[in-house]
Design goal:
Blueprint lengths: L2 H23 L1 H6 L1 H80 L1 H69 L4 H100 L7 H13 L11 H16 L5 H4 L2 E5 L2 E2 L1 H21 L9 H16 L8 H12 L7 E3 L11 E3 H17 L7 H6 L10 E5 L5 E5 L8 H8 L9 H97 L3 H70 L1 H67 L2 H14 L4 H8 L23 H24 L1
Antiparallel strand pairs: 1-2, 1-4, 3-6, 5-6
Helix pairs in contact: 1-19, 1-20, 3-17, 3-18, 3-20, 4-16, 5-15, 5-16, 6-7, 7-12, 9-10, 9-12, 10-11, 10-14, 17-20
Length: 839
């Protein structure tokens, strides 16, 4: 139950309680005024009904307005979605255009990059095409002349054939007349048989002529085909030569591209290896455990080294050097930072001696600390070798055997050991460190050894003023005698001994060990090496860039040459197919020629038989009378004349066919030559266009770049429009949701008002109002549950009022309850006021 509803119920209960008490005390007065109460109730109820009807009307108006707003918001949302979709399509299209523009820029850039080589090649192709066109044009001109002559000859032959056909018609009339005369004689049958035999013979000869003409035509076709074959093979040879030349060029380009790519790979690998080496060296330099010293210290040492270059022993006391060295002493003494590996590496000390591997690691560490300083001072770096380790091991053993604690034993370091190994020395450097007592056990870590070495070197180099810089000049090789081989180790008392070798004899034990053993370090100046490597990196980077540009150029040339080879190979294939078709035609012509020859042989045999028949019939005819012979002779003469003109026509037809064949051949040759010329012209157009594309490469690139810029602008605009559409859609969706919520709330308020109105109308029927009020007053009682709640209330509200909602309801569907209670309240309020007036 919400607060508003709860307060209304409590107020109503309080009024009911007041009414109940008053009615109980003065019931007889209430009865007397019952009609007056009923009238007042009706007036108040009518006012509430009108107010509720106005609420319904207002709620209906609110629903209609909210519905319009909701419809409008939904339509705006649909329009915003459409606009978003259109903006997305526009953006996608703009991106596609941008991608196309970028591809065109790349193509144009390739043209610009290959302009010099491509333009030369294209110009060469154009020049070759022009030569080919001139040659082809010359052949076309010759073929045209031959075609014109062949056509003139054909027209002349056709005219002769037409005239001869007329002569045959005239001769046939004479034969027909002579035949009529002969038919009236006794030799008619013989003559008829002879004529038929002659016809058969002529027909056979005509067939033979036709077959001979076919044979001639076939032979001409074979010759033409062979000529075409020879020409095609010559052209094929030329195209194969062009293909071979293109392949050779491609091979050269491939080799050059391969070499360029190999050079690029080599340069790239070399550059990457160098970069890795530099990174490793930098990491080594950064992580290297090294002495800390400055140029002020180095410059002073160099100065006093020069002053004491002939000094065999100690230097004078130099306060300025001592003051500068003091700055670095503490940092170097305390500066050791052990690694996990060194802390986990242990060595065993047996009978006061540590093994050779420990001496090797200790000596290499000491060399790594001292060598950068020695090199900075212009001295040779320390070399650690099997020979120097053996010297160190023998020295420590001699000290242990002598049971000597802290102090120098000159008989060992200047007599025993130098004589044993064959070298000379001035002395040694020894030191006790803060952890020397810890190094006298039977097991010691490499980290503890290195810390002791660093502290010893810090004392020798930076805290040696009171010792005449003897230790410093010894370990840094600054005296007149110079050392290179050295080693360091500890004795059984935990004291460090640094021993260097001076002037070893060539045949001594040390020299022999140096030759047969190993040298473990070749120290370098890390900073100098790093500077050299970085300078080398710049050079290699330049070489790599040049190799990359060269590889790209040669790869582009390789692609262009590959296209030339592809075109040349296609031309070879096309010409080979043409030759194959010609060879197939020749094979068919040869087969046809053989068939014709077989037919000719059969016709020749048949003609021979027919000639024998004619001879027999002519002999029979010869035996007839002279008169008949004359008639037959006249007939024969007429037929002979006819045969002559027929034979002449055959000859003319044969000549006409030959002229027709010659004309066809000339036309075909002209067509072929014209086709070759057209092909050459088309090739010239393509090569000229290719040349023009290279000549206009910068201009085309500029256009492509302009188009790309425009496409990028379009993408930016489309993207902005798309973002605006998304924002508009978000706003429209929010407005639509708000409008739908407002519509739902308006509908709830309308439903609530209608329910309240319906309830109020039911309660306000005149008869019910009167009966209910009378019954209520007469009974003078209330529901038990209401009375029980009223008894618990001790304070009544000063004023209880129910107002119509001025906004859409926010608490659910209970407003009709409030309305009903308001009606009841108005009824009870009248009666309460009435009682108060009577008291």
């Amino acid at each position: 139950m919400n607060n508003k509803f709860k307060d209304t119920v409590v107020g109503t209960a309080a009024l009911l309680a007041t009414t109940t008490i008053a009615l109980t005390i003065n019931s007889h007065q209430v009865k007397a005024d019952n009609k007056e109460n009923t009238k007042q109730i009706k007036n108040n109820s009518t006012s509430s009904l009108e107010s509720t009807e106005q609420r319904v009307t207002k709620a209906e108006s609110n629903v209609n307005a909210a519905q319009l707003e909701a419809d409008s918001a939904s339509q705006n949302k649909v329009l915003a979605e459409q606009k978003k979709d259109q903006a997305s399509d526009t953006l996608n299209k703009a991106k596609e255009n941008q991608t196309k523009a970028e591809n065109l820029v790349k193509e144009a850039q390739n043209k610009v990059s290959n302009k010099e080589i491509g333009e030369k090649q294209a110009q060469k192709a154009v020049d070759e095409d022009k030569v080919s066109i001139d040659h082809a044009q010359s052949q076309v001109d010759e073929a045209q002349k031959a075609a014109d002559l062949a056509l003139d000859s054909l027209n002349e032959a056709q005219s002769k054939v037409t005239n001869q056909e007329q002569k045959i018609k005239d001769a046939q009339v004479k034969v027909d007349n002579a035949q009529k005369i002969v038919d009236n004689t006794n030799v008619g049958k013989i003559q008829t048989d002879l004529d038929q035999a002659n016809k058969n013979l002529i027909q056979a000869k005509s067939s033979l002529d036709e077959e001979n003409n076919k044979l001639t035509k076939t032979r001409v076709a074979i010759d033409n085909s062979n000529e075409q074959l020879n020409q095609g093979q010559a052209e094929l040879t030329q195209k194969q030569a062009q293909l071979a030349q293109a392949n050779e060029q491609l091979k050269n380009s491939q080799e050059m591209a391969n070499k360029a790519n190999e050079d690029l790979t080599t340069n790239e690998n070399s550059l990457n290896q160098l970069k890795q080496k530099i990174a490793t060296l930098k990491s080594t330099e950064e992580n290297q455990d090294k002495l800390i010293y400055g140029t002020d210290f180095i410059n002073l040492v160099k100065k006093y080294k020069e002053e004491n270059r002939d000094n065999w022993g100690f230097w004078p006391s130099y306060p300025d050097l001592a003051e500068v060295a003091k700055k670095y002493y503490e940092a170097n003494f305390q500066g050791y930072k052990p690694t996990q590996a060194d802390e986990n590496t242990y060595y065993t000390i047996n009978n006061g001696l540590i093994d050779k591997e420990a001496i090797k690691q200790m000596s290499l560490y000491a060399a790594s600390l001292l060598n950068p300083l020695r090199i900075s001072l212009g001295e040779k770096p320390i070399l650690v070798s099997d020979a120097s380790i053996e010297v160190e091991l023998a020295t420590i053993k001699a000290y242990n055997d002598a049971n000597q604690g802290f102090g120098h034993l000159e008989n060992i370091i200047q007599d025993k050991i130098p004589k044993e190994f064959g070298f000379w020395t001035e002395g040694e450097s020894i030191a006790m460190t803060t952890n020397s007592s810890d190094l006298k056990g039977t097991r010691v870590s490499l980290a503890d050894l290195k810390m002791g070495i660093r502290q010893a070197i810090a004392m020798w180099v930076f805290d040696d003023n009171d010792q005449g810089y003897g230790h410093m000049t010894d370990v840094l090789s600054l005296r007149i005698y110079k050392s290179e081989d050295a080693a360091i180790s500890i004795d059984k008392f935990g004291i460090f001994h640094f021993n260097d070798i001076v002037e070893p004899s060539e045949d001594g034990e040390f020299a022999q060990l140096k030759k047969t053993g190993q040298t473990y370090n070749e120290p370098t100046d890390v900073a100098s090496e790093l500077a050299n490597l970085e300078a080398e990196e710049v050079t290699k980077q330049t070489s790599y860039v040049a190799a990359k540009a060269n590889a790209e150029q040669l790869n582009n040339k390789l692609n262009a040459d590959q296209q030339v080879v592809t075109k040349a190979q296609q031309a070879v294939n096309d010409k080979a197919n043409t030759i194959k078709n010609i060879q197939s035609s020749i094979a068919q012509y040869i087969e046809q020629e053989n068939n014709i020859k077989n037919t000719i042989e059969k016709l020749q045999s048949d003609i021979k038989s027919k000639e024998e028949i004619v001879t027999n019939l002519e002999n029979q005819l010869a035996e007839t009378s002279a008169d008949n012979k004359q008639k037959l002779a006249d007939l024969q003469t007429a037929k002979s004349n006819l045969d002559e003109v027929n034979n002449e026509l055959i000859s003319l037809n044969a000549d006409l066919k030959q002229k027709q064949a010659n004309n066809d051949k000339a036309k075909k040759t002209l067509e072929e030559k014209t086709s070759i010329l057209n092909e050459a012209k088309q090739k010239l157009e393509l090569d000229t266009a290719d040349l023009l594309s290279y000549q206009q490469a910068p201009e085309n690139l500029k256009k492509a770049q302009d188009n790309l810029a425009q496409a990028q602008d379009e993408v930016e605009k489309a993207n902005k429009a798309y973002e605006e559409a998304i924002n508009l859609l978000t706003i429209s969706a929010n407005n639509d949701e708000l409008a739908q919520n407002q519509l739902a709330e308006a509908k709830k308020e309308l439903a609530s008002a209608k329910v309240a109105l319906s309830t109020l109308k039911a309660l306000l029927e005149p008869q019910k109002i009167e009966n209910n009020s009378a019954e209520f007053i007469n009974k003078q009682q209330m529901p038990e549950q209401v009375i029980s709640k009223i008894k618990n209330k001790t304070v009544m509200p000063e004023k209880t009022r129910v107002e119509s909602n001025k906004t859409l309801p926010q608490t659910g569907n209970d407003s009709w309850i409030l309305t009903s209670l308001g009606v009841l309240l108005s009824l009870w309020g009248v009666m309460v006021n009435f009682k108060k007036r009577k008291i």
